[in-house]
Request: fold
Amino acid sequence: MTTDLVTQHSFASPRTLDTATAEPSGYVFEAAGLEKKYDDGRVHALRGVTFTVTQGEFVTITGPSGCGKTTLLQMLGALDRPTAGSLLYRGNSIPDLRDPSIYRAHEIGFIFQAFHLLPTFTALENVQIPMFESDLSISERKNRAVTLLQSVGLGHRLSHFPAKLSGGERQRVAIARSLANNPSVLLADEPTGNLDSENARLILELIVRLHREQNMTLMLVTHDMSIAQRGSRTIQMKDGRIVSDRALTIAAD
Amino acid sequence: MTFFTVIVRGLTRRPVRTGLTLLGIAIGIAAVVALVGISRGFNQSWAAGMKARGTDVVVSNMASSLIPKPFSASVRDRIAHLPHVAATCTLLVDVTSIENAEMMMVSAREWGGFAWKNLKLISGRMPQDPTEPAVVLGRTAAEVLKKKVGDPIQIETRELSVVGIVDGNAWVENGSVILSLPLFQEITGNQGKINIIDIRVTPSTSAKDVELLCDQINRLVPEGRAVVASENISNSEASRMVRAMSWSTSLLAVLVGVLGVMNTMLMNVFERTQEICVLLALGWKRWRIVRMILWESALLGSLGGVVGVLIGAIGVKVLGATPAIRGLLEPDLSTSLLAVSVAIAIAVGVISGLYPAWRSSRLTPSRALRG
Reply:
C-alpha cells in the first residue's frame, strides 16, 4: 500500500475556524468540567470531564456501554454541544464556533462503527462526498479519492457500491473518506466493532499506520481492552466520569 | 462526481416511487396543457373564423352559453347606417349533431353577405339561391361527415344536398356546415331570427373609432353586445367560465401533484435521516443539504413538467382528431403555454420541497453516531 497520500500537518493554527480570539495553548483539545445532560437532565452522560490532548497523540477511550464515550466523541467532533464546561480545539471554543460544519469538514475525520457509507454511491464517490466543502475541482476531487482508496488497498474497488464490498472493505472506504479533506484529527467510534477479528486487526493496523505516518491526533473509542492498549494513552470512563487517564509506554504496531 | 450527480442519485434510489410521483405531476401538467389549451384554442378558433370572414365587429348575445342567443334580424337595420359601417352580414350559428357527428358547427349566412366571400370552392359549386335545399361543407366537416359533393345530408328533419366542399381559411370555417340563412331559419323554426351580425368597417377606421362604434351600437341595440371581433369570444361570460373552470381544474390537478411530490420528498428525507446526519457529520453545511433536497424536488418537478407537456400535447392532438370535436376547435399548444406549464411544474417541485428541505435542515449530526 502506498502511504504518501497527504502532506503532514504543521498545525500552527487551525485553517478554517472562526473564533480567532483564542490564544494558542499548544493543546489540540482541552476539556474542563465538561457536562452533558439529556432528556431534561434525567440522563447525565458526562460529569465534569477534564483532560487535554496534545498533537499526534493516539488516545483510546474505553469503558462499558453507556459510560459516555460516544457522547464525548460527539462533543469533540462538534456534533453536539455540552451542557456545561469548556471544550477547546487549539484554543478555540468548539461550542462557540459560528459554523461548526467548517470545523467538521476541515479539521476532523470521522470513522464510524457502522461505516455509514452512502449506499447509492460507489466507493470512489463516497470518498469524494466530504470534498464538496473544499475548493478542489471535480478532477482534483476524483484524483484525490483514487489516491486515498489506493492508499487503503482498494484501488481495484473504485466503482463498487457498498453493498458489493465486504465489511472490512467498507471500513477502508470510510477511512479513506475520513481523510478526504486532510484533517488533523481522526475521531474513530468503535471502528472495528462490526468486523470479524481478522478484518478488525487489519483495520486497526491501517488506522495506526495512518496516524503515525501523518502525525494526526487520533481519538479512538473502544470497549476492547486489547485495542485500547495500542494507544499512546488510554482514558477509561465510567458513569460519565474519567476514572483513569494513563500514558502507555508502547504504542505497538 | 458533481453535485448534480448527488441530486440524481437521491431520486434514483427509489426508481418506482420517483417514477410514480413524476407521473402524478405529469398528469397534473397534462391537465393544464389540455384544459387551458382547449379553452384558449376555442377562443382563438372563433377569432380566426371571424377574421377569415373579414369581420371587424361582432354583435351577438353570448350570455352564459357558448352559442349566442337568437334575436330579431331587424336589429341590423339599426346598425347598417351608422358611421364607419361598410357592410353587415347576419348569421344564425348553432352547434348541433348531424348524422354521426355529435357536435358540428352549422353556419347559416345572409344570402349575398360578405361572409360567403372568403369561401374558396375545392369541389362542386355554391348554392344557387337562398331557398335551394343545399349546403357547402368546410373541408374538415366533409371529412368528419364522410360526405362528398352530391351526397344527401340530414339537418334536423330536412334532407339537404351537399353541393360543394370549401376552404374557409380558418379551423372553424373548415369545420362548419354552411348554408343560406333563410333555409336554416326555416329548418330550425327561427324565422326572422339571427344570433350574429358581422360588421365590416370602412378601411380608414381607427381602432378608437371602432371602439366608439361598439359603444354606439350597444346603446342602440339592447338585444346584443357589440365587441371587436378578436375579443368577441374571450369577453363572453361563457368563455370566462370555461377559462375559470379549466384553470381551477388544472390547479386542482397541480395541487395533487404538489402533495405527491411533498409526500415523496418527505419520505425521502425520513428514509435518509441517517445519511443526512452523516453528511452533516462529514462537514456538509446545512444550506447544502437544503439545496440538495430542493434541487431533487425541482428536478422531479421539471421532469414531470416535460413529460406532462408531452402527454398533454399528444392527448389534445388525439382529442382534437376525434370525430366528436374535430373541426370545432384547434387547441392552442403555443410555446408560451408549454413554457408556462413546465414553469408551473418546476414551481410545484420547489414549493413541494420547501417543507422537506426545512425538516432536513433541522436534523442534528449527532444522530450519525447512533445506530
